[in-house]
Amino acid sequence: MVLYNLTIIVDETVNEEWQSWVKTAFIPKISETNLFISHRLLKVLNSPNEGITYCLQFVADNPGKYETFASDHAPAIMDLHTQKFGNKCLSFSSLMEYME
């Protein structure tokens, strides 16, 4: 299993709008791909960054499903985020493997 982590630093001026939009549009759009088995939204409490930092985490049961998401869906979905919030949000992603 792999965990796709999307860290997003949100400008405080759009925080409430971002929270609503991410829950009603962004997460559902990613979930519609049916490539992830679960997701969670977390707020980073000790971030050194200005603004408010969140982590969106999506779990895929194999790396291939993440690769399909990254190549076939992520660019368009991230474009929606950029169109909506522009430079009011900064994001970066990482991919992690579950260790047993």
Give a brief outline of the structure.
The chain is α+β, with helices and mostly antiparallel strands and 100 residues long. The protein has helices at 15-31, 63-72, 74-85; strands at 2-10, 38-43, 52-60, 89-97. It has a single domain (2-97), classed as Alpha-Beta Plaits (2-Layer Sandwich).
Features:
alpha+beta; 3 helices; 4-stranded antiparallel beta sheet; globular; 100 residues; Alpha-Beta Plaits
What does this structure look like?
The chain is α+β, with helices and mostly antiparallel strands. The protein has a single domain (2-97), classed as Alpha-Beta Plaits. It is 39% helix and 33% strand. Strands 2-3-1-4 form a four-stranded antiparallel beta sheet. α1 runs antiparallel to α3 (74-85). The mean pLDDT is 96.
Q: Which residues form runs of ≥5 with pLDDT under 50? A: none
The amount of beta strand, in percent, is 25-35%
- What is the 3D shape? globular
Main beta sheet strand tally, sense and closure: 4 strands, antiparallel
SS-based class:
alpha+beta
Number of domains: 1
Instruction: Name the helicity range.
Output: 25-40%
Mean pLDDT value: 96
CATH architecture: 2-Layer Sandwich
Biggest β-sheet: strands ordered side by side in the sheet: 2-3-1-4
Order of helices and strands: EHEEHHE
InterPro entries: DUF4286
Pfam families: DUF4286 (PF14114)
